[in-house]
Design goal:
heterotrimer, A alpha/beta (503), B alpha/beta (448), C alpha+beta (133), A: 503 residues, seven-stranded mixed beta sheet, 33% helix, globular, B: alpha/beta
């Protein structure tokens, strides 16, 4: 490795078994205050339903053991707090700590969704301000904050489209989806009761307009478009795409996962998008937490307002805010209560910190991606040469000649102290390397990843076996995924033969 | 801006390296007419202190200093500070979905432990890494039953949480699934006669909640028998997981859908929470969401990976078991830490305290003329009473005493005109319960 | 691996070995190689019908799912019981012990319109050329 890679060094990391393996009857980690009412006779109160014994197999450990257990586990993870995640379309940006602080305030974290609305005006004001900001950012007319994640936002969006089409006399049968789309798009379309038809991308990685024209019929409810596409390329024809769809009474849905390339620079509403979702855990900095929680608000044009999911935030006279549950044409509820409120709080805190200067984040994101693209052009194959926005997609075509593929390169990048980029997606680029640095990376960090990737390309030529068997320096080497799928072991069981614990 | 690690000079250097004269050039693919010329009209940028001040202001406009008797799917429980200490570790908070197993073993092992705890609690053989919440978990459990049986009708108890039923109906509308409701008896539990009458060989699932929305605990064995005899599956929803510390787990169920909010998650005005799906082992390939499995690495060490991914959207696309991608991993971690802190004895004791507090509250309320217990079935920490006056009116009076009164059942069950759902947990001191009963008594007397 | 002469083959890489109105169906060596390590096979139960050209099951690796298309129409007599515990048999012996289903043919003549071993080998040679182009 080159000198720059002092970034990744060896270090003692402690091992740890399963919490159940540290358990011993009689240990306790948490005490309750004493009961101040008469103890109920559980057998009398519950009869046949009484669970006499405690939960079998539940751990019994002390507080220090719990703390050490999870602290040790945490040291085995990579995280944004440690370094870059160049994962394409994930937008792994800095998760500001003040967001965590405000989400935990008494009076914010403690509120019950069914408490009287006159005691919830603070919460409702938070929702209202976030709605206003998201509408300004997207250029849309109305927004719902209910969906719990991007995929749920997509479903909500498609249900809104269905309701709109039904109102216009025909729900229609099909949704068009580009072949470069994220897997949630077709999965969601099916759940919404539509057939999926794949639209080809052209040689430049954009929607094939001729193919599109051919397939937009009066049987098509909508096109689900990601913009910029999953190739990181702006869909230049988007206003024309909108026209073609609208001429046939179809709607344009935008998957907003890549909003980090657009915020403050352009607005999907202005471009002709009818409805879209946002991923607050991407563009708006709420933490990924190892896989959620997220939030997937859906913003739309006025025509779709009647179908909003309930409840809908409404301002009454005197500025009093209320939640309206009775909407005649609503698509219904997509999730209990009020959406992932705690996540919404964090997103608002992020927007408030930036203010109108939020455009700078977008500019830095696009700057970083193009800087890395320039640094790696020539070393890695670039299948689509149109300008990149916030992410760039290379392929492993050059390295494949030595039997080294994108997965191998990604695993070797781990040894250099980075999280891998997105491998093997989008599907239209065989052997893809999808890199999105986000605006949270310094020039130095970008230089380090360029160096690392160049070094790996060199290794692919001179010592391919090293790359193919990476990572070498992690606590755990490559894991047997085949065995895990053939004979799934999905839980610990008591009195089981202990498998050989990590050395 | 403090979140952006670039100096103006560095931006210039990078532009030069790219060969662009200005940042505008990098946006040239956006048609000129659509590029914004003015900054967005957002509130002015705030310093850290100002962000905090904004939210403190909002917090002061909410329910500070009130005692609450609300449950109805969201429960106030003690939370250890240790849970947040763990959750706030950057390696958990700011890490990604564990697709790259070698550098995500912390997350993966924690998920494996979560899956185990959920199986132990529910008496089921396999549990996934989380769904969004109890309402979507219940919906996905029904859809799972639909796939497993290839039948298009579901019978769901009216005593399942009203919002859970609403969510199911929203999802069912487009899958051709017919949702029919079965009523409840004077005991507060499922009308089994009504169930038998509706059970035909086109039913994929019988769905109940226990303890149900009225707080009543269902007897599951006969329901499971009835369902299985007609080839349907039994889906059981659990909104108050702490009940499983003292109530028999729903092991007769084929699929359990649970809300895990009670395990260390603040009410947070309705979310984020954590949904759980657990089922019999043989159904695992139809289970939605992520699964962490145990395996070994090249050198024989134990490790964990996401597995059976072919069920999921990123591989199966149109044919996936669900469209779920991001779930509630950090919330599942909170539940895992919380339950580990409570441990076997702690959970049992916590459940006993809840049971005792609720029993005491009912006793105190039943002393009041004008208050009557409604349902005879056993209950855990929630129960239904009927008042001699409208619950809304009583709650309005309670509010003046800084008491947030019980859930007004009439809003979801029109026939339960004067009925209230009272929830009492370990967090409500005896003195408060007595004060609450006194206030109810006073209000009912006043209106005579 | 050689492609048995007695078998017939489809463009979706299934093989069929027929005698009178009974046939055994599996996936070819080319298919198992493309798929990688097989972790699971989803097969129809005895008694179910299969229709020529329609899918009757799937074979899964860790990262992909392959639909299996029926080369002919008929009724399933048996699904390979060994694959439940040892799906890897499809990789190690795709033309023998890794068979998927046995069917009773409704139209035995359908077999004749399928490719023979030579035609199949030419077909995959063409595919391999395309892939490395």
């Amino acid at each position: 490795m080159s000198n720059h890679s002092n970034r990744a060094v060896r270090h003692i990391v402690l091992n740890e078994g399963l919490i159940f393996e540290k358990s011993s009857p009689g240990k306790r980690a948490f005490d309750l205050p004493p009961l101040d009412v008469p103890a109920a006779d559980a057998r009398k109160a519950l009869g046949e339903s009484h669970r006499r014994e405690g939960v079998e197999g539940f751990p019994e450990v002390s507080e220090i053991e719990v703390l050490r257990h999870f602290t040790r586990l945490s040291t085995w993870n990579y995280a944004i707090d440690l370094g870059m995640y160049p994962l394409g379309s994930c937008t792994m940006k800095y998760n500001p700590r003040v967001n965590e602080h405000v989400a935990r305030l008494a009076g914010i974290a403690t509120e019950h969704p069914y408490q009287p609305q006159e005691l919830s005006q603070g919460c409702l004001k938070v929702l209202q301000l976030l709605e206003k900001c998201l509408l300004e950012i997207t250029g849309m007319d109305v927004v719902t904050l209910q969906p719990a994640a991007g995929a749920q936002g997509e479903l909500t969006g498609l249900l809104l489209i269905r309701a709109y089409q039904e109102k216009h006399g025909n729900p229609r049968k099909r949704v068009l989806i580009p072949d470069s789309a994220h897997g949630t798009n077709p999965a969601t379309a099916v759940i919404a009761g539509y057939e999926v038809h794949n639209i080809k991308s052209d040689a430049a990685g954009q929607i094939d307009m001729a193919h599109l024209r051919e397939h937009v019929t009066s049987d098509v409810a909508a096109l689900m478009l990601t913009n910029p596409s999953t190739l990181g390329i702006f869909e230049q024809q988007i206003p024309q795409i909108a026209e073609i769809l609208h001429a046939q009474g179809a709607l344009l849905y935008m998957d907003g996962a890549n909003m980090n390339a657009l915020t403050g620079v352009t607005r999907p509403g202005d471009l002709g998008v009818d409805v879209m979702h946002l991923n607050l855990h991407k563009t708006f900095s709420t933490p990924h937490g190892g896989g959620g929680p997220g939030a997937g608000p859906v913003a739309m044009k006025k025509a779709l307002e009647p179908f909003l999911p309930v409840p809908v935030l409404v301002e009454k006279e005197g500025g009093r805010l209320t939640l309206d549950f009775h909407r005649k044409e609503s698509i219904g509820k997509v999730k209990a209560f009020n959406g992932n409120f705690g996540v919404l709080v964090r997103a608002l805190a992020y927007i408030l910190a930036y203010g109108p200067g939020i455009r700078q984040a977008t500019e830095d994101a696009v700057l970083n991606a193009n800087y890395i693209r320039k640094g790696l052009e020539g070393t890695y194959d670039l299948p689509y040469t149109r300008p990149s926005m916030h992410e760039v997609v290379f392929s492993d075509a050059i390295q494949k000649k030595n039997g080294v593929n994108t997965m191998d390169i990604a695993k070797r990048l781990i040894d250099y102290g980075f999280h891998p980029y997105t491998t093997a997606f989008p599907l239209i680029v065989p052997g893809a390397l999808m890199i999105e640095p986000t605006e949270s990376e310094s020039k130095k960090e970008c230089d380090l990843i360029i160096d690392a990737m160049k070094s790996i390309a060199e290794e692919a030529k001179t010592s391919p076996e090293l790359v193919r068997t990476a990572p070498h320096n992690t606590r755990i080497r490559r894991l047997d995924e085949v065995g895990a799928a053939r004979k799934p072991v999905l839980r610990w069981k008591p009195a089981e033969k202990q498998s050989k614990a990590a050395d | 801006m403090r979140y952006l690690p670039k100096s103006p000079a560095e931006r210039e250097e990078m532009l030069a390296a790219i060969g662009a004269k200005s940042i505008e050039e990098l946006f040239s693919t956006i048609p000129e007419a659509y590029r914004l010329k003015e900054p967005l009209n957002l509130p002015p940028a705030m310093s850290e202190a100002e962000v905090i001040a904004y939210f403190q202001q909002r917090a002061s406009e909410n329910s500070v200093g009130y005692t609450s008797y609300l449950g109805a799917g969201v429960y106030n429980h003690l939370r250890s500070v240790v849970t947040d200490t763990i959750l706030q570790r950057g390696e958990f908070l700011t890490s990604y979905t564990p697709y790259q197993a070698e550098i995500s073993q912390g997350t993966l092992q924690a998920i494996f432990e979560f899956q185990t705890l959920m199986c132990q609690l529910t008496g089921q053989e396999v549990a996934n890494a989380s769904m969004y919440d109890g309402s979507t978990a219940t919906t996905e459990a029904v859809l799972m039953a639909e796939r497993l049986t290839n039948r298009r009708r579901v019978l769901i108890a009216r005593s399942v949480h009203p919002e859970y039923r609403d969510v199911l109906k929203t999802y069912a509308k487009n899958s051709g699934l017919r949702v029919e409701e079965i009523g409840f008896t004077t005991a507060g539990t499922l009308d089994t006669k009504g169930l038998e009458a509706s059970l035909k060989d086109d039913v994929c699932a019988v769905a109940v909640q226990s303890p149900n929305f009225f707080g009543a605990i269902e007897t599951l064995a006969p329901l499971a028998d009835a369902a299985h005899r007609s080839g349907a599956l039994l889906v059981v929803a659990v909104t108050e997981g702490v009940s499983l510390g003292i109530v028999k787990p729903p092991s007769e169920a084929d699929i359990v859908a649970m809300e895990g909010q009670s395990f260390g998650l603040a009410p947070s005005y309705g979310g984020p929470f954590v949904g759980v799906i657990a089922s019999r082992g043989k159904f695992v390939r139809q289970m939605p969401g992520r699964l962490a499995g145990e395996t070994t690495d090249l050198e024989g060490r134990r490790g964990f990976v996401l597995t059976l991914a072919t069920r999921e959207q990123h591989i199966r696309r149109e044919k996936a078991t669900s469209n779920i991608c991001t779930n509630q991993a950090l919330c599942a971690l909170a539940a895992t830490v919380h339950l580990t802190l409570l441990g076997k004895e702690g959970l049992r004791e916590l459940a006993e305290q809840n049971l005792s507090k609720a029993q005491f509250a009912l006793q105190e309320l039943e002393k009041i003329p004008g208050v009557r217990r409604t349902f005879s079935a056993p209950f855990f920490n929630e129960f239904t009473v009927e008042l001699s006056r409208s619950v809304k009116m009583v709650n309005a009076a309670l509010l003046k005493e800084k008491i947030v009164g019980p859930f007004v059942l009439g809003t979801a069950y029109p026939e339960l005109t004067k009925h209230a759902l009272v929830c009492v947990t370990e967090t409500t001191p005896r003195s408060e319960i007595e004060r609450f009963a006194a206030a109810v008594k006073h209000t009912l007397e006043q209106s005579l | 691996m050689a492609y048995p002469n007695e078998f017939r083959y489809t463009k979706e890489h299934e093989w069929i070995s027929a005698k009178d109105d009974m046939a055994t169906i599996g996936i070819t060596d080319y298919a198992q190689h493309e798929l990688g390590d097989v972790v699971f096979a989803e097969l129809p139960a005895a008694g179910s019908k299969v229709t020529a050209g329609k899918t009757f099951g799937t074979v899964e690796s860790v990262k992909a799912v392959s639909e299996i298309y029926a080369p002919v129409s008929g009724e399933v007599v048996a699904a390979n019981p060994e694959l439940h515990n040892k799906p890897e048999t499809i990789n190690s012996d795709p033309h023998g012990a890794g068979w998927l289903i046995k069917v009773k043919l409704t139209k035995p003549i359908e077999v004749n319109s399928l490719m023979d071993a030579a035609a199949y080998e030419a077909y995959i040679a063409e595919k391999q050329k395309e892939a490395s182009a």
